[in-house]
Every structure is written in structure tokens, then in C-alpha cells.
Specification:
Length: 238
């Protein structure tokens, strides 16, 4: 089974990579909520809802302010659609690998920023990289998954548990377990992030960067060795 997975899927599609990114996502969620304005930057549903509330209450200033993180997330999606074409043409690394490297650099820089810097800088930066990550890592071993939030994982866990209860399909139970693992990984990341924030303040974000380093060096090794001839191959779901 392991050999079949290695043959069929790219390294960037492996469950282990998604679990690492999900843990880092939980870490970043804890960081922005606890230290950077009490918001979650991993997704934009809450910001879009707050935008509607602000417009309904004629609070134009707040509505304009909310357009900043929403626009950063939108820009991240656009950039992550355009840049991979040029990265593939260069033929040096896969876009997936380069993206994780970019995220690490951004998080390291954020950790160096003094407390006097407005929290919006960190919010926008994390909005941007989370959007690119969400749009880039779409399927883990053929299963649609997200790496920055849990809503669909919770839904898919319930759906496949229901299928297993009705039909006793082993595949459904496995799918439910995989989505459950993603949720657990996010929770563990949030737990570690909370402890780190309480202990190290703003520099705690380096913990998320360290987690991403695990994924980055694994992907880099694959790019330079076993997948050197697959740098032009597009991952599933794109």
C-alpha cells in the first residue's frame, strides 16, 4: 500500500504534509487570536459576515477596514494561481515547495517585528499566506482537504461516519478517520500555539515556521531526488 501511494501521488499530496500544514494552521490561528487583534486569519467567513453587519449598520469605516483582510485573502488566491506557471517554467523547484519556503520567511519576519507595529500588518500577512496555502494544497492522496481551517473536515468526518454506519464500508471509515486526524492536528497546533504565545509573546510565531520547516525540507528533498523529473506535474485537484 505504501509503495502504491509513493508511486501514484506527489510528495506534496501526502497526508503527512497536510497534517504538518494543518498543525501550523492551528498554531497561526491561536497566534492571531491571542496576540494580533482577536481575529482568525486562516479563513474569511467571519470577516465577510462582519462586513455585511457593518454595511447593515451603516458603519462605513469598519466596512472599509474589513475589506483589507478580505482583499489580502483574495490577492493570495490570485497570486497562487499565476505564479506556479512561471515556477514550473524555471524547472528548479515545485511551486508547493517554494510556497512553504515563502511562508517560513514571512513568519520569521513577523516574529522580529516590534510590538509597536500595528497588528494589522501581521493579520494581512497571515491572511495572504493562508490563502495561497489553501489554494495550493487541495488534495491529500486523492482526498479533497484544506490545511488552514476545519469546517469541511468536520462535515466530511460526519458524512463518512454516517456512510459507515449504514453500509459498513471500510473506505468510509478510513476517510472519516483521515479527516478526524486533520481536525486533531489543528487542535494540537492551536494548543502548542497557545502555550508558545503565553511563553514567548509575538516571537511565538517562529514555532509555526519551525513546523513548516519539517514540510519544506521534505518537499525540497523530493524535488531534488525522487521527483526531480516531475517538477512540471500538476498535483491532483488543480
Amino acid at each position: 500500500m505504501e509503495k502504491e501511494i509513493q508511486r501514484k501521488y506527489l510528495e506534496c499530496e501526502r497526508i503527512t504534509i497536510f497534517l504538518i500544514l494543518m498543525m501550523s494552521g492551528g498554531f497561526m490561528g491561536a497566534y492571531t487570536y491571542l496576540l494580533k487583534g482577536g481575529v482568525f486569519c486562516n479563513a474569511q467567513t467571519s470577516n465577510i459576515m462582519l462586513l455585511g453587519l457593518a454595511l447593515g449598520n451603516h458603519n462605513w469605516h469598519k466596512a472599509a477596514y474589513l475589506l483589507i483582510p478580505i482583499s489580502a485573502y483574495l490577492l493570495g488566491a490570485i497570486v497562487s494561481e499565476i505564479l506556479p506557471v512561471y515556477v514550473r517554467k524555471a524547472g528548479l523547484l515545485r511551486w508547493d515547495t517554494l510556497l512553504i519556503g515563502i511562508e517560513i520567511v514571512v513568519l520569521v519576519i513577523l516574529g522580529f517585528l516590534p510590538e509597536s507595529v500595528p497588528v494589522q500588518v501581521s493579520q494581512v500577512a497571515i491572511n495572504f499566506i493562508c490563502s495561497m496555502q489553501y489554494n495550493t494544497f487541495r488534495q491529500a492522496q486523492g482526498i479533497p482537504m484544506a490545511t488552514t481551517f476545519c469546517t469541511n473536515h468536520l462535515r466530511q468526518t460526519g458524512i463518512h461516519l454516517a456512510i459507515w454506519f449504514r453500509k459498513k464500508e471500510g473506505k468510509a471509515l478510513k476517510r472519516s478517520w483521515l479527516h478526524g486526524e486533520m481536525i486533531l492536528s489543528f487542535v494540537i497546533g492551536a494548543f502548542i500555539g497557545t502555550k508558545a504565545c503565553n511563553a514567548f509573546g509575538s516571537r511565538a510565531i517562529w514555532g509555526a515556521a519551525l513546523l513548516m520547516c519539517l514540510a519544506f525540507f521534505d518537499l525540497l528533498r523530493a524535488d531534488r531526488t525522487k521527483e526531480k523529473g516531475k517538477l512540471y506535474q500538476v498535483p491532483s485537484g488543480h
